[in-house]
Amino acid sequence: MQNNNGKEILVRVEHLKKYFPVEKGFVEKIIARGKKYVKAVDDVSFEIPKGSVMGLCGESGCGKTTTGRLIMRLIDTDEGVITLDNKDITHIKGKELREFRPNMQMVFQDPHASLNPRMTVGRNIGHSLDIQNIGTRAERLERVKRVMESVALTPVDDIVGRYPHLLSGGQKQRVVLARALVLNPKLVVADEPIAMADVSVRALILEMMIMLKNQFDLTYLFVTHDLATAKYICDTIAIMYLGVIVEMGQLKSVFNNPLHPYTQALLSAVPVPDPRARRKHKIPRGEIPSAVNPPSGCRFHTRCPIAHQDCSSHIPHMEEKEKGHKVACPYV
Amino acid sequence: MERPIIEIKGLTIQYPTFEGPVKAVEDFDLSIKKGEVIGLVGESGCGKSTLGLAIQGLLRPPGKIVSGEILFRGEDIVKKTDNELRKIRGRSISMVFQDPMTSLNPLIRVDKHFFETIKAHEKDADKKKMVERIEKLIEILGISSTRLHDYPHQLSGGMRQRVMIGLGLILNPEVIVADEPTNSLDVIVEAHFLDLLKDLKKEYNLTIILITHNMGIVAELATRVVVMYAGRLIESGNVMDVYGKPLHPYTQGLLASIPNISLDQEKLFTMPGSPPDLISPPSGCTFHPRCSHVMKICKEKVPHGIMKDGRIVECFLYAK
User: Fold this and answer.
1) Domains located in chain B, CATH noted
2) Contact B43 A199 (CB under 8 A)
3) Which of A168, A170, A228 lies nearest to residue B261, judging by beta carbons?
4) For residues A252 and A237, what is the distance between their CA atoms, to the nearest angstrom?
5) Does this model's pTM top 0.90?
6) pLDDT per residue as tens digits for the range A27-45
7) CB contact under 8 A, A228 and B259
8) Does A274 touch chain B (CB under 8 A)?
9) What is the model's pLDDT at position A7?
10) Do B195 and A228 lie within an 8 Å CB cutoff?
11) A315 vs A56, A244, A284, A297, A305, CA distance in Å?
């Protein structure tokens, strides 16, 4: 698979949709008909070039995590197509899915909760090798140790037999990284990988992710709400709002020249760790509306400083404004 | 010179455990003048929240103040009884808690939260006057007074956080302790909140103690930064000085390791190691195992009372 620029594409997502039904109470079930849905992901399309880091950013509830989980096939897609490494994986299941899984792995947000406390570090990391039935026991252990070395979990022979509660937060997150890497995946979906880490070890994990990317020839989908971190690690970025992508492009192009009013607001709201840079915020009033009944037309029109009359009726489409820089707003 | 509104002297707080006491706060000194905004920064587990609780006499067992004093307008909070503390809390020092989602009572309406708070301090408060007062305040906070009859779950996260602030402000306190007030908020709501706090500070000449691990919001709001590491104060100074020229190796490392959206950073500084175990912290300077400038004296003696350029920097690099 290649895109227009001749770059090789690893992941392509087209018109992805995921609606979660809203559970209703007993009385409501009797009175009201029809189901309500949370439109978590509503017509999202993008592609990730091989070997790059794509950032998926937005406020809580914008659908960024759901998108990541859809690509991982942890939840089923309602509509749309997901292609990974030239294979349509949207509806594969059972044995076929299990055999494909080594190609894509995930790093979860909370390392304290995502490791099995009853397994040693070695078994936590090697568990997927067991499931995939790769090699002999000795070979598997060898592979676990090698991957532990690359995430600097040293001394390996000491740590491999420890249980997760004996590790520090930063070490746990490196175990999670190692577990994702042990199967030699092509794509790693990282969902807020540093949100739970201590401030002083965040940089270490980020630097390590960059190093591993080069070493193992990885592609990342980096899901985060923190735009400063995204700026540091990502090559391309997509800004999501209420289940849709409002702006997308090369990181430099989007950050230096944000076009969508929502992107502009988001960027100006990020606190800068420099007291000389204090400024009055230019921020839209109000808060993110409910995804059950999102605003009609452009979903941002209720808070948009440049909203026009027809924004509430007309759904904006992604248009290319600069090379590779797309935005879903006709008035920029 | 005006007397500081809060003076903390030699404060040591411990949590006993089976493995020995956790030294949450060790030999901590700090004095705060009226109208200052203190940014108390540090990583999780450095003792900053414990300190915030102690300032209001809210520390509960097993937490124990082993030694030291906390003077509020010259009176020692540590020695006060619960009844005396109740008169200070809310009225003189109030708290804005970390998580607005769980700090409000889900069973009572928003207005009743306010009534309860006022009634606790003014027994014979007139309901009509209370309502007027509350409406005036939450109007300033940007919540329409019709929302007063809602239950907490009907409000959004940002509104709940503003209600929390309202509850903290309704009795016109002199000092507000805000513990990670924006932790559960999205960036845009967080920015609103910071703007609001700035305006309130100007209007009421509040003294604010902002407890956070986010160096960004401290830079935005604080007048003075106090950096804590492993229960100790390690650097304290004017916000411009500390961010412009951090002196303590930990502060330097911390500031260099944060992704900054306004810069094009080639590489972030990575600090080796991780925060220490507070049951058996390292000898001498608690930061020495992670410090690149470590000297012999750092392992033997605890730095204390070291000044440089009018700032407190607890590091032997600056000792004469």
Assistant:
1) 6-92+173-318 (3.40.50.300)
2) yes
3) A228
4) 9
5) no
6) 777 776 677 888 899 999 9
7) yes
8) yes
9) 76
10) no
11) 21, 11, 20, 4, 17
